[in-house]
User: What shape does this take?
Amino acid sequence: MEHTLAEIAKRCGGKIHGDGNTLIRCIGTIQHAGPGAITFLSNPHYRRYLTNTRAAAVILSPTDAEICPVPALVSENPYVLYARVATLLTSTVSASRGIDADAKVNPKAKVSATAWIGPGAVLEEDVMISDHVFIGPNCVIQNGTSVAEGSRLVANVTLCHDVQIGKRALIHPGVVIGADGFGFARDGEVWVKVPQLGSVIIGDDVEIGANTSIDRGALEDTVIDNGVKLDNQIQVGHNVHIGEHTIVAGCVGISGSARIGRRCMLGGSAGVVGHIEICDDVTVTGMTVVTHSIHEPGVYSGLMPMDTSARWRKNSVRIRQLDELARRLITIEKKMKD
Amino acid sequence: MEHTLAEIAKRCGGKIHGDGNTLIRCIGTIQHAGPGAITFLSNPHYRRYLTNTRAAAVILSPTDAEICPVPALVSENPYVLYARVATLLTSTVSASRGIDADAKVNPKAKVSATAWIGPGAVLEEDVMISDHVFIGPNCVIQNGTSVAEGSRLVANVTLCHDVQIGKRALIHPGVVIGADGFGFARDGEVWVKVPQLGSVIIGDDVEIGANTSIDRGALEDTVIDNGVKLDNQIQVGHNVHIGEHTIVAGCVGISGSARIGRRCMLGGSAGVVGHIEICDDVTVTGMTVVTHSIHEPGVYSGLMPMDTSARWRKNSVRIRQLDELARRLITIEKKMKD
Amino acid sequence: MEHTLAEIAKRCGGKIHGDGNTLIRCIGTIQHAGPGAITFLSNPHYRRYLTNTRAAAVILSPTDAEICPVPALVSENPYVLYARVATLLTSTVSASRGIDADAKVNPKAKVSATAWIGPGAVLEEDVMISDHVFIGPNCVIQNGTSVAEGSRLVANVTLCHDVQIGKRALIHPGVVIGADGFGFARDGEVWVKVPQLGSVIIGDDVEIGANTSIDRGALEDTVIDNGVKLDNQIQVGHNVHIGEHTIVAGCVGISGSARIGRRCMLGGSAGVVGHIEICDDVTVTGMTVVTHSIHEPGVYSGLMPMDTSARWRKNSVRIRQLDELARRLITIEKKMKD
Assistant: This one.
């Protein structure tokens, strides 16, 4: 499907620079895009490719537009505009609707006539599937769980019982939502299971990456608010609350009952200990563990720096002597004062 | 289903304080519980809610019982008693038994008449499923694997060939048990696969969280002893041995041939390097890597402390100078001595 | 199936020491092997078991051969030779070919007559399955994806659309290949999804461990080269490139657009930040984060050392004072100079 640059500007925004009748068919990178492709320039690192680009058009900032050799779509936030244009050019409306002959839908489940239930998917009692929902192959949705309008479970997703998924969710393969939280009471040397009686509530416009797990609450619910984006291989413990528009990178672990504010960003492999609170607008860099509540917006870090192993060995030995070294420094300071 | 407080005390333990005929129907939190609900007080942080609780009854310690405004069930370990009461009030006996029409059971598999095999589950040759086992939707159980009495595989669990699961296991979705361990021999620049010929033996009363992986042994078996509790997203390498009643939090990685003792506790995202031994009763705090064997019970840590990024940058630069700084300190000490 | 030691040497290599007619039936450890078993000695730690071994034969180095009490197969690299012998003695050729009655294969998928498609597997449109491929139970292979000769998907593997898997891949349960990369553009407080238009290209002889996720590229492809070995629970972000014969241990996270060279080794739970480059022949030890490009082969580390919690508490407080302590040391040095 072809669009003119003017049509794209009309539907996605941006100011046209050059010929609005330029035809656009596809997307490319600024280095490799060929005829018919639109590309974007957002990272200044790639500006050097601009003057020789063979793209049909470029999405870029007002400043870069001045040196752009081809037609352009100009925006103060070219990456967001690119995201919109790429969505327009590449989104395919799934024509599928109905229930595949190889899906297993319990007679007490309610499925919208505009939804698609793929082969091998299992829907148990009292499941509710709303309009335009896509349930991919081999997904399992257990008793009493609901999935709201326009959500998409790609394949092999497991939603345990009584979970609520909001509108327009995108849930990737291997995700498990609503497994029991990790709750045990110690009785001598034995651990007694504490029943996990809460559920999981996922808001609207949430994306959840491959093989991520979100546990159900112990008594009240685990809550993921609107617009949250979770990457792959993340662990969200029971009764966690993640605020609106917070974004969490891969391999992060969030322990039980932690509360994370709105518009936070957690870097890859970061951790959050249980029962603490992080206020709105906090950024935690990768591999950092949040060990106590954060009450001030800002950027927080705690990553051991990488070095050659030879130097690391010498320095890491000193870490284990650090308190002693500090005391010896203080002793010297005292002596010199005397 | 309703119970009197007296019935509950009879079945679960605890001493009644107040009216034993109080009717209990459900569970609630101390802040939000309403009529008919029983709640508990274990964490002193929540004591402030006790005097105004609207719960029908509270499970608590002898000390707290004195200021409890409603009937109570008193125990030295109220959290364990709560776990038992909650289990009594909420456990539902699954009436399901038999093999779902959409399960695929090999004729050479043996399935107890009291077990349930859900839709989409695949049981290969020589699988043995004992009494009252629940195999949820889309689970895969490969050749020669056995699951003992009362175990429950929630959904989408994969048990590879020749694995043994003990009694009353609870295995959450996405778990993989018995995939090949990571064994390769280096031949020039190429890695040659070392066949993984051992298996995995899981004891009784083990719980395994969502998306956790436990590899089969290289020559002998990977062993998880009775009463072990594993959280989500854990990686257990080949030939690991985890002792009885050890509990492991989410995202922990345990490398091959590590031996972990009994009653240990590993915090979230901790790691254990291969071929080392951890004795009984060791606690490892979150994000700590156990790099050498531990022979003394106790608590071990190794987490880089979190700070604001501005301060972290300054301090982490110094970590890379630490050995040099220590040497300069020693030089000063010598000079001052002279 | 029995083999003589001479037959084994002929097919796998190694020099016979002792009786070449010794019959070998199985594999064992040097401590526990019994009659008919072949074992190996590679790790010097196990040399003490050699003189009393009850194995029928041992694979070992020329030096160890001198003190070996039983027939031996001698090689400069006994572990590699063992890997070959174990493969010979234990590999079972799957007789299965065809499409199980409970598989769901789209009429537009192409499946070789020598491939096996297991029960519950779902193959969508334009999937191509080559000769001798094994697709285990409940795997999902989405539109346009191809799997080359001799590859094996054990069970419950998800390959998203338009992915390419090379020859002789071994992919363990729970693996997800080709889910959307984590790409969002920030528009005020909202994150706008950036369509992920690239794919994943996996070379030949790649092994991928349980519950590992490999994301598709944003515009160009994520590439895993020939001979790469990935352990369990690994996260590979979009547009990552991993060079030939690199080996990655469990729980590693590799962020988007990182390029990792050939013959690298990444230890367990290590991390690689986005958009950086690691040259060939780099080893990164466990739990170390590669925060900047590495241009020199060698070993790199960045692990906070473990200690008792009591000592760790004292030392970790000092880490947060480290820059200040260093400045005080410099002040003293100046004063002493004056």
About this structure: Chain C is about 15% helix and 30% strand.
